[in-house]
Design brief:
The chain is built from two helices and twelve strands. By secondary structure, it is mainly beta.
């Protein structure tokens, strides 16, 4: 899929009817609808599919894909990523970012000192956590105003200077 964006990962089958648990990388900003075309991919294997259902629940997203009517079919796609065309993503609310917009951005302090590069992020209780690599060192920083002064999409992330504890 040209200019595709990964929106989630299939984590495990749910029940016997072909549903799977999905790790949603869009923080709920992207809500696929029934009939939404997606690409499922793992390594070199890829297949086009259609979302039958996508519902948020207390333990994450439960989804079902066309042609997956039993647990065996759901197990086959465990660990696969789900992607859509970038053009299909809705505009995000102010202050909300898609993962792909942040990963790879350089990080610097408000004093202009280089502080690494965002290599990942994950959700935790209360906030997302930025994973930053600075040389050989990897550190985590809560993605909250107390630590992040500004985000310039396509530019950089500016953080408040931090001290080693």
């Amino acid at each position: 899929m040209e200019d595709a964006v990964v929106i989630g990962f299939i984590r495990k089958p749910l029940g016997l009817g072909g549903e799977v648990r999905v790790e949603d990388l869009t923080a709920g900003v992207f809500q696929p609808v029934s009939g939404q075309a997606v690409t499922l991919r793992r390594g070199d294997a890829a297949e086009r599919s259609v979302i039958e259902t996508w519902r948020a629940g207390p333990k994450g997203v439960a989804a079902k894909f066309a042609g997956r009517s039993d647990r065996t079919a759901a197990e086959h796609i465990q660990g696969w990523e789900i992607s859509v065309a970038r053009a299909e993503l809705p505009p995000r609310p102010p202050g909300v970012y898609y993962d792909f917009e942040l990963v790879g951005l350089p990080v610097e302090t408000t004093a202009g000192e280089a502080a690494g590069e965002v290599v990942g992020l994950y959700g935790a209780r209360g906030s997302d956590i930025l994973v930053i690599r600075e040389g050989e060192r990897v550190y985590e920083l809560p993605f909250v105003r107390a630590h992040v002064a500004a985000v310039e999409i396509g530019g950089k992330i500016i953080i408040l200077p931090h001290r080693e504890e």
